[in-house]
């Protein structure tokens, strides 16, 4: 009996081994499922995506800031009374000129709103003409990286180009009509007391604050594009910034 069972056992083992060999061979012939890979971005695509993101950000930001109360009604970017002239404000309030102070602060923001409207083409040119050699570093640099790069490379040019627009806007809203009586009265008092007279440059103040406000809004738009797929309004934004969110 043992003589019969032993050959049968050997045969069964051989059969199982042969079947496994066939299965292994068949498996080797079946193509493996392709591993999902992210599309490789070219440097040109990255740069185009960054420029497009900033362009979208500028358009959205200007549409929000260049309207009535765009600055005045936004606590994040509202232009306050110039810090260098807070003594003037306090004295004016002491003299019962609170209405004059309110009008001044309102028209200060109106100048920023008007200048922002006029400066849109200048700001867009600065974006379209920028060269980014380290595009991938900016892409992967996290929130605000593109805006920070833009700020560092274009602010001086923007100030030069923006300033005449601000000056014209200041004249248009007659800002100095509210400023001059305040500063004149304050300086007259300083003449009597021997205090320091002030004459802050309103053009510089509004220019810097308006540009800073725009950059703040641009950064918000950039971060929205980075985080929210619905904010990627075209294919290049979807491809470039989608490569980050899929990491």
Task: Give a quick rundown of the structure.
Helix content is 73%, strand content 0%. By secondary structure, the protein is mostly helical.
Please explain how this structure is put together.
- The chain is an all-alpha fold.
- It has one domain (39-245).
- It is 73% helix and 0% strand.
- Helix 2 (43-65) packs across helix 9 (235-245).
- The termini are far apart.
What is the residue-averaged pLDDT? 77
Q: Using the alpha-carbon principal axes, give the shape.
A: elongated
Question: In total, how many domains does the architecture comprise?
Answer: 1
Strand content: under 5%
- DSSP strand count: 0
SS-derived structural category: mainly alpha
End-to-end gap: 66 Å
Number of helical stretches of at least 4 residues? 9
From the alpha carbons, calculate the radius of gyration and give it in angstroms. Answer: 33 Å
Low-confidence stretches: 5-14, 16-20
- Helicity level, as a percent range? over 70%
Compile the SSE list and pairings:
Elements: H1 2-29, H2 43-65, H3 86-94, H4 98-128, H5 135-139, H6 145-172, H7 175-193, H8 202-227, H9 235-245
Helix pairs in contact: 2-4, 2-8, 2-9, 3-7, 4-6, 4-7, 4-8, 6-8
Q: What descriptive keywords fit this protein?
A:
single chain, 247 residues, 0% strand, mainly alpha, 9 helices
């Amino acid at each position: 009996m043992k003589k019969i069972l032993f050959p049968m056992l050997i045969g069964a083992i051989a059969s199982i081994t042969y079947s496994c060999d066939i299965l292994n061979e068949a498996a080797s012939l079946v193509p493996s499922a392709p591993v999902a890979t992210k599309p490789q971005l070219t440097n040109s695509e990255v740069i185009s995506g960054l420029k497009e993101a900033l362009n979208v950000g500028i358009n959205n930001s200007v549409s929000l800031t260049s309207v009535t109360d765009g600055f005045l009604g936004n606590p994040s970017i509202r232009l306050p009374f110039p810090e260098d002239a807070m003594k003037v404000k306090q004295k004016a309030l002491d003299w019962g000129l609170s209405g004059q102070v309110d009008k001044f602060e309102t028209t200060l923001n109106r100048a920023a709103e008007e200048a922002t409207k006029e400066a849109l083409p200048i700001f867009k040119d600065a974006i379209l003409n920028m060269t980014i050699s380290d595009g991938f570093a900016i892409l992967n640099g996290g929130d605000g990286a593109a805006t920070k790069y833009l700020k560092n490379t274009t602010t001086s040019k923007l100030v030069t180009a923006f300033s005449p627009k601000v000056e014209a806007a200041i004249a248009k809203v007659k800002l100095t009509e509210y400023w001059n009586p305040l500063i004149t009265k304050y300086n007259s008092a300083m003449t009597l007391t021997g205090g320091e007279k002030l004459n802050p440059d309103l053009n510089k103040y509004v220019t810097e604050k308006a540009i800073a406000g725009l950059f703040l809004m641009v950064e918000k738009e950039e971060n929205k594009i980075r985080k929210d797929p619905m904010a990627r309004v075209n294919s290049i934004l979807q491809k470039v910034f989608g490569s980050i969110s899929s990491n």
